[in-house]
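hiii, so i know i said id send this last week but things got crazy w the move. better late than never?? heres the sequnce for the chain we talked about at the cafe, plus the structure i predicted for it. fair warning i was half asleep when i ran it
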Amino acid sequence: MIGINGTLALMVATAAGLTPPAASAQHAQHGTSVTRGADAGKRADTPATRAYRAANAKMHGAMDVAFTGDADADFMRAMIPHHEGAIAMAEIELRYGRDPAVRRLAAEVVATQRREIAEMRAWLARRETRK
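okay and structure toks below
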């Protein structure tokens, strides 16, 4: 059985247009990294695929924060858009996905990531008041 990290890695791989077998094999060998499948460009450009690509692009752009050298604050500021991207992908799953187990996981991702974003924003706000 694939754990939550493996499931998320496969969801990300699928969203990026990677073939699940290639993604699974690569994940098993090297953690969460994946390789592009030979037929990745041949897949149908579905509404879900377009939504995943848009969410991925938005997340990666937003994660490109101006790093300050303060590892704690930089982590928090970069992780907020990362978590927002996870929420966006989970919401796409909830809109287009059909597998009850994956939909349950997506709902859990939304709830967990929202809570963690609130914690990160609160931490950053406290940090700013101490300056």
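btw Residues 47-129 form one domain. thought thatd interest u
miss u guys!!
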